Amino acid sequence: MTPSARLQAAIELLDEIIVAARDNGASADNLIKKFFKARRYAGSKDRRAVRELVYAVIRRFGERPQNGRAAMAGLAEEQPELQELFDGTTYGPAALTENEARTDGGSLPTWLESRFATPIDAPEREALLNRASLDVRLNPRAGSAADIVNFWPEAEKLPLPGAFRLESGTNVDASDPGRKGLVEIQDMGSQAIVAACLPTRPKLMLDMCAGAGGKTLGLAAQLPDDTRIIASDTDRGRLSRIEPRLRRSGNQNVETILLSPKFEMEALAALEGQCDLVLIDAPCSGTGTWRRNPELRWRMTPERLSRTTELQARLLEIASDIVKPGGRLVYAVCSLLDEEGGDQTDRFLEKQPNWRIIEVDLPIGRSYRKGILLSPYQDGTDGFYFTCLEKL
Question: Any idea of the CA torsion for 108, 111, 117, 119, to the nearest 10 degrees?
Fold first, then answer.
């Protein structure tokens, strides 16, 4: 592919990504894979160049562009070398005209700027779009920290037990430690949430929004074998991904429950008043994961955020019925917006006076709004808010 053809391919991909973001469709990564599956003629250098162009646009503009051409024209205003590729050749984009639309604006959605937690200032927000690190978690059932260092001598030891940072691009899944279940890829922020759950030694615990089971596996690796751990989620596809990971990890004490949206309590009724610990890693705006998924800025709208916060509040109510007296609830969001973090905690405690805040002692994070705030700038993690509550 010529440089102009690569630019045109990026524009076409951006058109698909913009529509998918608007309509809550497939992710950018999946659309890129599908795009090149239908274009076998594109070599590895072509695919890499097109992908870099696409993500340069996604990271640059916080507001969802009108279309791919306007977005790329906007990027070309700041990168003059791109303007020359609008050359009107057979496979390239038509020449730019003086009055055609060009995307502009900052890297943050304007409507979200006033909603961030107070400590998230300008440097913090800039860091939200930096490249993410590659963190792994040790599975102590499969080996020791020394085994990780022996295989990856360059591994950086992180402040949490069993947490390491590897060089970006390391193929963990294809490595011996990955295949043998010695390590799992997991951001240090997610590992901190697991650590916040561990001061208790529950006999019965529920990971209510388990997804593919990253935190479930983290807990299972450190809790006794006689702990009954239940992982539940409303997404069958995501929940099914925990099974091969469980087999690889060697854990035998995890079971799964598929929930129906809006009817979660029907499937969880047998657990009412029984759980020593419930973890809610709630669906959220994902503002704390923009460095991994920058297109989320194009997907979230005020209406979607409102629906998301309503869901979070409902999940907290369900959890309050499932936790037994003396049990604990850990509520977490990979968001740095107050309405998903501290505001949710305040509203819950106002409605549920039979709960109290539990202080969490961790080597990372800062106290904020009855919980802990983690951020890329301050902690080198994804952005999280979480709080630990005890039922009286």
Answer: 50
- CATH code, 360: 3.40.50.150
> Hey, CA dihedral for 29, 35, 38, 41, is it positive or negative?
negative
Contact status, residue 277 vs residue 322, Cβ threshold 8 Å: no
CATH of the domain at 180: 3.30.70.1170
Among 209, 275, 334, 388, the one annotated catalytic: 334
| Amino acid letter, 49 | A
Strand order in the sheet with 134-138: 156-157, 163-166, 134-138, 183-185
Judge contact between 312 and 284, C-beta under 8 A: yes
How many domains does the chain fold into? 3
Q: Are 267 and 376 contained in the same domain?
A: yes
pTM attached to this predicted model: 0.95
334 belongs to the catalytic site = yes
User: Can you give the residue range of the structural domain that contains 160?
Assistant: 134-185
How many CA atoms within 13 Å lie on the side-chain side of 342?
15
Q: For every one of its 392 residues, what pLDDT tens digit does the chain have, with 9 covering 90 and above?
A: 999 999 999 999 999 999 999 999 999 999 999 999 998 888 999 999 999 999 999 999 999 999 999 999 999 999 999 999 999 998 999 999 989 999 999 999 999 999 999 999 999 999 999 999 999 999 999 999 999 999 999 999 999 999 999 999 999 999 999 999 999 999 999 999 999 999 888 999 999 999 999 999 999 999 999 999 999 999 999 999 999 999 888 888 999 999 999 999 999 999 999 999 999 999 999 999 999 999 999 999 999 999 999 999 999 999 999 999 999 999 999 999 999 999 999 999 999 999 999 999 999 999 999 999 999 999 999 999 999 999 99
